[in-house]
Amino acid sequence: MGSLSGSTAGASQTLKPPVAVPRHWQQLNILVVEDHSAYRLLLGWLLQKLGLGHELVADGFMGLVAFTSRPFDLVISDCQMPFMDGYSMVRAIRQHERDHGLKRVPIIALTANLQNDSPQRCLDAGMDAWLLKPLTLEQLQALLVRWLPGGDAGQPDRQDTLPCAVWPTRATLVATFGSDLIVDSLLESLLTEAWEDHRVLRHACATLNASLAAERLHRLVGSLVFLGSCDLEITATQLIKQVQTDGVAAHSRDLDVFQTRLCVCLEYLSSI
């Protein structure tokens, strides 16, 4: 999720400006598990900028020891590490939580390659979301706002907030639309509209406005289909019918899950 040549990083910063850091973050602690020293330093610096307490360790075994030694509010872990990789560590952490009746702590996968570290593999291990290297302060902050206690969207109960396995890539979009310039322009326009539709959808859900919710879901279907994005358009189409028939309140949980998955998908698209 960085500013490599040909990416939409500039557009992403325009679409998702940094929010003010919540005061309660000063009381929170994050565990970072990363074997690459440069990335440990980078994450430590970014978390310090956000006013968050943190501990940095170099492999999964050290991460497990740290997690079982003192409480953390969130874990960010690389997937591929020596001694104990991120998947093994996360499975051990989830078992530790179950054995001791502890609250489930959000765990974010940190990866440079979504093909090797597939979303399904991350989900199966017990991870909740992902960060794609290289990352920026804005992208880290946006994810933390969602997953830290007291965050904007809360912490979903279901482990289905990772993106689906079928991803549009820059290469596939360029092959479809013809050039990087066209892809950048289309992404900027479509993402601007999709984030606004998401904002209005949240308002519609909060006010139980079924007609407005169905309208914004319909618009989002158009954006998602145009970009070839995951299977969310199928879910949105189903939700349109359900909301029109039963109202918003009857499907509030499914709408919350859809919106969380939508944000993950849009953030991915803003990074390619």
Automatic annotation (TrEMBL):
Pfam families: Response_reg (PF00072). SMART domains: REC. The modification 4-aspartylphosphate is found at D78. SUPFAM superfamilies: CheY-like, Histidine-containing phosphotransfer domain, HPT domain. It comes from the Bacteria. PROSITE patterns: RESPONSE_REGULATORY. It comes from Pseudomonas paracarnis. Residues 29-148 form the Response regulatory domain. This is Response regulator. Keywords: Phosphoprotein. CDD domains: REC_hyHK_CKI1_RcsC-like. Gene3D superfamilies: 3.40.50.2300.
